[in-house]
User: Fold this.
Amino acid sequence: MPTTLELDSVAKSVYLAMVAQPHADVRKLAEQLDESDGSVNRALEQLSELSLVAPGDAATGWMPVEPEVGLTAMLARQQADLARRQLQFEDSRLEVARLLAAHGSRPQGHVPGVEWLSGESAVWKRVAELADGCEEETLSLGPTERLSQTVIDASRPVDESLLLRGIRSRSILLDSARSDPSAMDYLRWKTESVGGVRTLPSLPVWMILIDRRHVVVPVSNFRSVMGGLVCTTESIVNAFAELFAKLWKEATPLTDARPRTHGRLSLQEQHILRLWARGLTDASAARQMDVSLRTVRRLSEKLTERFGAHSRFQLGAMAIAQGSILADDMI
Assistant:
């Protein structure tokens, strides 16, 4: 896992080894650390981005920056980045609040078929009301990030209400939920009691569909529900239903082990290739899949070696040429 300084274990080991042996070349560092040359080179790129190494005359092409100087500079940059992110978060929260307040102050029916909800409690209250009136089935995608205890606590009473009335539900969640013990306890109960649960590497949207007549789309930011909307417009509801049906066919049932690939690319590998093809960075792909940056980089190393590629562009081109992903995935 990355450290709090965003320095993964390989990069940390390479940096410490270079401090001890400033003139060691890549091959020597790789042998000493039991890593591949590619891993060492990627670590050097990461260290360069963090200004912990600088161009030099060593065989690696880099020289380690004095630890105290490099770490102090890196901490200063991270503090500035944290302040920037906090400002973005506050701006986003203010914008969502303004949007919800503006729509909430309009007379009901101003936007036909659309109901705006402000705040997390309002969202879950409305979901519970719609679930109480549910007659056939509920379908849900997401959330599009880790299944938090807050969401579990809000969802369980709804599921229990559906169970009492014999109404089934189907849910598609992130693959990352499989590695979360507390989430798995709830999901196993839900699978056995209420309906089916399947998983995918990432999800496009968080939505809850009630009787294919109401769709609830929570608005979240930094794993906090800011509000949401409820839509009853038939064309929009049908579009969400079709999206769910398509993803349900692709998803893996929670009760199944992840399928053996027998030499083929895994679903996770195919998915990361598609995300890269769409221009996502490693960090963006990691956030969308709710996995660590190290996991994404490990996939990158594995796929690069498998295809014999020398760049991310070449990797995408070779994956398309061999049919591992489709050209349409570039869109």
User: Anything to note?
Assistant: DSSP finds twelve helices and ten strands in the chain. The two ends are 31 Å apart (CA to CA). The domain at 267-330 is CATH 1.10.10.10 (Arc Repressor Mutant, subunit A). The first helix runs from residue 9 to 20.
